Amino acid sequence: MLLFSLHSDLQVKVTPGTLTEGSWVTLTCSTTCTLTEIPNPTYIWYKNGEELFSDSSPQYQYSVSRGGSDSYSCALRDPDKLSSPEVTVDTSSLSCLRVTYTSRGICSLIPSVDLPCTTIYPTDLQVKVTPDTKAWKRTLTCSTTCTLTDNPTYIWYRNGQSLAWLTSHQHSVWNSETESYSCAVKGHEDLRSPAKRLSLSDVSTWGVDISTVKVIDIISVIHGSTCQYNILISTNLHHLCN
């Protein structure tokens, strides 16, 4: 009876990466308890109710195939053979992994009010850049083909550092910026998008019509062999390299 109370919180945790056909998904048989009664535990894995294998490692990796939907559970090989609730992993869309938990206890551990509860993993995040020639800015969009619910909170990173004050899927930057940006959905920080480095050469291809800008003053500053123009317009100070 004591053993049951220690290990009854077994659960399967799903750790996807950026999914493509043949890539790997990692399942972990997890418990919050220290397995002191079983110094060398053996884990048993089940797929769709059938035993797959047993091993001393709490992790199981499998190769992704498009269109699959399978249920997984794990157990400890002990006298009670206690098992976790099933977790269904749906790879119908490789850009939008769906993991469904069927247990009320497991659902309470993740942010959801629905039973059974489904967690969606956006695995194809990318930063898209759109020009705003009138404002001399660029709009960065954290984009995914996955349909996300419940108005998710986004996390932005500049040069690898989190920008805590940015929580929307869009973010505006000046055209003069040459930093590297990436993004993630809160709760799935391990699925961060690839970094997108901004370039001044991109700005020149957008055909900004400088003649439409009301110039108040132009100051030329010589930096070695480079001439930098600080153009003061009616709204703000912008920087162009020539």
Automatic annotation (TrEMBL):
Residues 8-90, 116-199 form the Ig-like domain. This is Ig-like domain-containing protein.
